[in-house]
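Q: I have two molecules that I believe assemble together. Could you output structure tokens for the complex as a whole instead of separate predictions?
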Amino acid sequence: MHPFDEAIDLCPTAPHAFSGAAHPAYANMVGPFGGTTAAQLLQCAMLHPERLGEPVALTVNFAAPVADGPICFVARPVRTNRSTQHWTIEAHQSQDPSEGAGKGVGSGSVSGVVATATAVFAVRRETWSAVEALMPAHVPTPEALVRMPVKGMPAWPQRYDMRFVEGAFPAAFDEQEQAHSRSTLWVRDEPERAMDFASLAAMSDSFFPRIYIRRRRRALMGTVSLTTYFHADSALLAQVGTRHVLGVAKALNYRHGYFDQTGELWSPEGQLLASTHQLVYFKD
Amino acid sequence: MHPFDEAIDLCPTAPHAFSGAAHPAYANMVGPFGGTTAAQLLQCAMLHPERLGEPVALTVNFAAPVADGPICFVARPVRTNRSTQHWTIEAHQSQDPSEGAGKGVGSGSVSGVVATATAVFAVRRETWSAVEALMPAHVPTPEALVRMPVKGMPAWPQRYDMRFVEGAFPAAFDEQEQAHSRSTLWVRDEPERAMDFASLAAMSDSFFPRIYIRRRRRALMGTVSLTTYFHADSALLAQVGTRHVLGVAKALNYRHGYFDQTGELWSPEGQLLASTHQLVYFKD
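A: Yes, here they are, computed for all two components at once.
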């Protein structure tokens, strides 16, 4: 079984409820890679018996650090229309006893929520279609590039084969501030795995934080909100298969402790599979 | 009282619950302008006695058409940390009796949800800051441009003073497809109103659907998911005051019934106030 399939392997425990766990193969420096948490949240709706269609939008808010260990999920279709379905999904973990009652958590707070999500699913029809964003041109093939070295990195980047065209993770934190944070890279699961919505959701969070690329210095940071729009349907994902897809990412603005980054994932044939945006907390 | 203040005027009715209504001054062709619905959802958290800090991220999913008339809101802080707070917010309306039970709405569905939202609030600190996105250069001042004519339009565009640099709403649906859908415009509330988070949230949804600009033909459409990142804090919004801000918007991809659009709102001094993204359903 592929480690990603293990990571998103959820067990139904009650109506709307699923259990899963942070997977060591996708560990980050502390807790699991947020991309797998996003994929688990999406997977709850994918596995739900009332699901309609395929995902078109997913927003995940990372409310608290996810700890290694079990995670409980609750996924509810709050509105089902003829061709669209709206979901609210939550991830819970047993509350860390070090977090006391003195933190001002009021009557409206639910203990142990570590992530909330909303998703929109839809039954798609063929329509007039057009790509307006520009896929980077004159990019070398994945075969012409070398894989990013992952030695010494946390587990999760070892689960991706990343081949950078520009804007690689800095080889050293030399504090040489760059003019921009743009990255262009080919990326696929490692080992190879045929792309599906869950892996596309995870890959949308696989861009290294832009502030590392821009400032080349260490910083405390964490994604607080991640939104991905799925332009691909399952037929298009099947065409991509196990091949690399082209990722581009950049930051728009860093201000007073938060920055946003925006990214795109392109099929080798130039179809935009997903556009993805996130807001990231940082401390300098 | 400014019509926007009337539109976001909510009344607390129970713990976490507020009542409001669709305001005729912001009517769209059917139901209210989605921007005011987004502003109402955000305003619930702004008014909530447990609120911490200021908004940094807001996602609104439009689950069903909002009808003219009363709207009930429920806003809960699901996680409050030292400097961040995570919200889930819902808007309900009495269910339209024409929507029958035969639609496959299962046990997990909540009757009458018309919109769901999540928001992240934060207490910000001053940090290293940088704008990486490019504000359009060589743009005429608002005074050098004419206001978009609003005669014959629904009520909501009449509540904005929009002055287009490029990519105006088409004067005629002549079906001349354009190469791109980029718009650049100055925009402010009409009548003038000092900007706050609620109006910034609404303005983030004030870009006309990109498919109108691109295809210059009528289409059925509706935003299904809207995400806004607030880079401005209240001090920066106070500097903007009642002046025009510069909006830019473009589409990334149109495919099989959905397209995404991305936008930015800039202060006259070149500060990025908000970046905003949405996924839109369309039928051609």
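A: One point stands out. Chain B is about 15% helix and 40% strand.
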